[in-house]
Structure formats: C-alpha cells, structure tokens
Amino acid sequence: IGSGMGSLTTAAILAKEGQKVLVLERHYIAGGFTHIFKRKGFEWDVGIHYIGEVQRESSVIKKLFDYITDAKLQWADMGAIYDKIIIGKKEYDFKKGVQNFKDQITGYFPSEKEAIDAYVATVFRAIKTSQKFYMDKAMSPVLSKIIGGKMRNPFYKFSDKTTYEVLKTITNNEELIKVLTGQYGDYGLPPKQSSFVMHAAVARHYFAGGSFPIGGSSEIAKHTDTVIENAGGTILISAEVDQIIIKNKKATGVRMKD
C-alpha cells in the first residue's frame, strides 16, 4: 500500500525473489517523495534534493539501488561543493571528502581547527554506535534482554542529546555551530530540537559528496517499476485503499475506496 521509496524497495526485493507484487498508490503518480510534476515545460522534484554514497561501487546504498533497478539507475556527481550554508552575507562551502571538508571549514574559522576535527570525529563515533543499536533490533527478544543493553547504551549517549548540546561541548563559537548544523533542513528539526544521531547520520552521509539521478528523481520509480513488472507484478495509481481485511489475525486482502 503506497509507492514511496520503502514500498518500492520492498516490492522490488520481493519481485527479485520471484513474488508477483501489487503496489496500490492513491496518487496519480507513483514514487512518493521521488515523484515529479511539470509546470510550463519545467520539471519539479518534490522530495529528492541530493543523495550521498552512490558514487562508490562498494557503498551499501549504491548496491541497493543497483539491485532494485537492475543497475539501470545512473547518477550525476554534483561536483566538489555539495552544500552551501549562507548566514547573512557570508557563504560557507561544504567540500566533498572528509579532509577537504575539514580544511575548508578551518579556512573560515582558523582558530577552531581542533573543534572542527573533534566535530567530525564525534560524527563518526555516533554513527559507529548506531551499528550495534540496529543489530540489537534483529536479535530475539530473549537475547536482546540479556545483552541488548550493552549494545544500545552507547547509542543513547548521542541520541538522547540534541545536536546543539553536543556541539556546545565541542565549541562555543555560535557562528561555527550554525555552519556545522546548517543541513538541518534535510531532516526537519533545528539544532536545539533534533537528536544528534539524526544530524550525524545526515552529515556523514554527504561527506563524500552528493549525487542526483540522471533524468530526474522519477527515474527511481521508473526503473524499480520495470523490475516489479518483469516478475509479473504491477503498480496501480489512483488506487486508494480503504482498509486491510484481517481474518484469523492474518491479512487476506484490501478493500478499495471505490
């Protein structure tokens, strides 16, 4: 139900495993936040701005996109500058490559070199704790009760603090904090409200730069749809589900709005 990125991914994986999948989408275009609309000859993307970690063949995200699109989806590198933070009349470029990023920001704040190094190290440390946190999710409830706490607790030390709280332990330079947290629009909450692990995940994701699907973000749904159809499945648009039919605690079908 629904044809957002999660649904399309699930459907394509099931299709790859030989299942015939029906995807029901109430909108007139499939793709969720990957879909587009057109006005006066221009094409507009509603959700995809840039995606990181797809230029490296070894990247998990790249491998997953290749898997669900039969490697038909191609990416354009956005160049050396993947983000620009503007505060008043000042502009701060984010350069791809961890060392390039640190050097560039240090150029703007020469006296804050140690803080900038510490910030990047803290981002990587927070991301490392998330690995065991998500491993715990895959364990049985009994095993999680026995050893799960040790796997989750390091993660909570970062997740239970706001982005601003963590940054304040690194530097008192408010301008630098604004610059380093300037990507908060990507995840929707300002630094004094967002969890630091959410910020760290986004910041880490783009350290190697950003990319955009060649042909526009609608190419994602287009190529995923082909994989689904090749297994005998399909995506239906303007198909709103009213309810899931449950019998004997099992889903047996859906009732449509019409």
Describe the structure.
With 258 residues, the chain is α+β, with helices and mostly antiparallel strands. It has 9 helices and 11 strands. A 3-stranded antiparallel beta sheet has the order 4-8-5. α1 runs parallel beside α9, α4 runs antiparallel to α5 and α4 crosses α8. The longest helix is centred in the middle third of the chain and has 25 residues. The two termini are 15 Å apart.
Question: Which helices and strands appear, and what pairs or packs with what?
Answer:
Blueprint: H1 5-16, E1 22-24, E2 36-39, E3 42-45, E4 51-52, H2 60-69, E5 75-77, E6 81-87, E7 90-95, H3 98-108, H4 113-137, H5 141-159, H6 163-168, H7 174-180, H8 196-206, E8 210-213, H9 218-230, E9 234-236, E10 241-247, E11 250-256
Parallel strand pairs: 1-9
Antiparallel strand pairs: 2-3, 4-8, 5-8, 6-7, 10-11
Helix content estimate = 40-55%
Largest sheet: 3 strands, antiparallel
Number of helices: 9
Distance between the amino and carboxyl termini: 15 Å
- SSE pattern, N- to C-terminal: HEEEEHEEEHHHHHHEHEEE
Short description:
The chain is α+β, with helices and mostly antiparallel strands and 258 residues long. The protein has helices spanning 5-16, 60-69, 98-108, 113-137, 141-159, 163-168, 174-180, 196-206, 218-230, and strands at 22-24, 36-39, 42-45, 51-52, 75-77, 81-87, 90-95, 210-213, 234-236, 241-247, 250-256.
